[in-house]
Every structure is written in C-alpha cells, then in structure tokens.
Amino acid sequence: MSGRRTRLAAYLDQRRRMGEPGIVPGGLAPGELLKLIGERVEAEKSVAAEKRARPRSTGPKAEADPKLSASRIANADYEDLHNAAMACTRCRLAEGRKTVVFSDGNPAGRLMVVGEAPGAHEDASGLPFVGQAGKLLDLMLASVALSRKDSVYICNVLKCRPPGNRNPMPDEIEACAPLLKRQIELVAPEVLLAVGSFAAQWLTGSTKALGRLRGEVYSYQGVPLVVTYHPAALLRNPGWSRLAWEDLQLLCRIMDSK
Ligand code: SF4
Q1: Which helix (H) or strand (E) holds 153?
Q2: What are the Cα distances from residue 150, in Å, to 111, 145, 223?
Q3: pTM summary value
Q4: Which of 67, 72, 90 has most ligand 1 atoms within 8 Å of its beta carbon, as the pocket-test mutant?
Q5: What is the pLDDT of residues 162-200, one digit of tens each?
Q6: N or C: less crowded end of the chain, CB within 10 Å?
Q7: Class for domain 60-256, per CATH?
C-alpha cells in the first residue's frame, strides 16, 4: 500500500474510532474510497507511461527554416515579422533560448529604443528591459515624459539571449540584423534611441566606443538617432548618469522639434 493510502486508511480508522465511520467525501464507504483512489493512481501511472513513450516534439528548432529568408523578412508585415522571429533559427542563439524577445511598448510610439540583447529576466519573460535595468530605463523615459505603454517601442539588436549574457558575436548580429531593419521600417518611429554600444555601433555604422559616439545626432535611414549608455552600464557606473541625462535632453529637443 502506498504512503498516501496508508495515511488515508489511518485517518479513516481514527475517525471510525471517534464514531464517525461514514465521513468520507461523496458519502462513500472507506473501502470504496480506497478502491477508487487505487484505480486513480493506476490510471495516472498509465498516462505518465504513455507520455514518456511518446516521441518528443523538438519545436521550431527542429524544423528547417526555409521560409525565413532575407527576402521574406524584407517584405514581411508586422505580424508576419513577429511570427517569423518567434520561430527563427538563423543563428546559434536559437539553441539555448527559452523565448524569443521581440518587443515591448507601443508599435505606434514616437520613440523607438534599441538595446543590445535579452538577459536572463528577458529570456524568461519574453519582454525586453525587465529587471533592474528595465526599471531604470522606465525611469529615464519618465524623466522626459515618455513611457513604454504610450509613446515608446522597445526592442533589441538580438532577439535571443547570448549564453551567460556574453557579448553578441558579429555573425549573430549579422544574422539578426534583417529582423531589426524590417522592425524599424514597420514601426517607423519619429526618433531612435540606441542604448549601449552594440545598438549604437550597428545603427550609426561606426566602430567608435560609445563614449565617443554619444552627444551627437545621427541619421538612420532618415530617422534622427541619439545614442546613450545602456541602463545596465549606468547601474554599474552611476557617475555616467549626468551624461545620460544630457543625452535625454538632446533626445527631448529633437522630439520637441517634430
Ligand atoms: S538571435 Fe535573431 S537571428 Fe539568432 S535565432 Fe534569435 S531571432 Fe534568429
């Protein structure tokens, strides 16, 4: 007899000794209830065995991905692009991800924020910029009267998490770039804000360090572009906050002029 059934039998014996032999759910006699539990346990065992015997689905990663060609991405509408990204296997990061982190915020927002890549929190939640860095980004946006709910669309250069939060590799950025390129075309923001060096370098086309890139207004395909520090870097280096504030003021001036 299993431990569960033994405990139940002991409980029923105790109730019987207390003069309440019939108090069991559904008005069943204790023997009948034990029989039903036994049958249920056997049924559950058999379902579990059947599940173990079934071949495992390996999901989208197991499928070849012939549809997600550069030309399909370049011509996708927003929904198609989103669906394509969710099944994307264009680079090795598909192997270790929990989720594809496509975007958050308002696709009709005036500002598009582009970060680097999902971290552990983002990989688990499927949303970009959650955790402490996400909270700081929200505060930075709120300081210039912007919010991801109403006026900001947020995404990353890479849609899948690099293992151990390592830096993105050049071939991963190259593989994912068509998705970001099309995402920017479809969202068509008034202004772009690149946070962190990988986003800043990809959007400006420069290899300069972020500290040398910030402070100027660039143009990405005709869209004004400002670059600033990644919130995670600001958390590690609070002394850069004043520079980030100046970048946000620059962003504000551009948005006010629109
Ligand atoms: S990082 Fe980009 S290119 Fe690589 S698998 Fe994810 S969505 Fe595809």
Answers
A1: strand 152-156
A2: 10, 10, 20
A3: 0.75
A4: 90
A5: 999 999 999 999 999 999 999 999 999 999 999 999 999
A6: C
A7: alpha beta
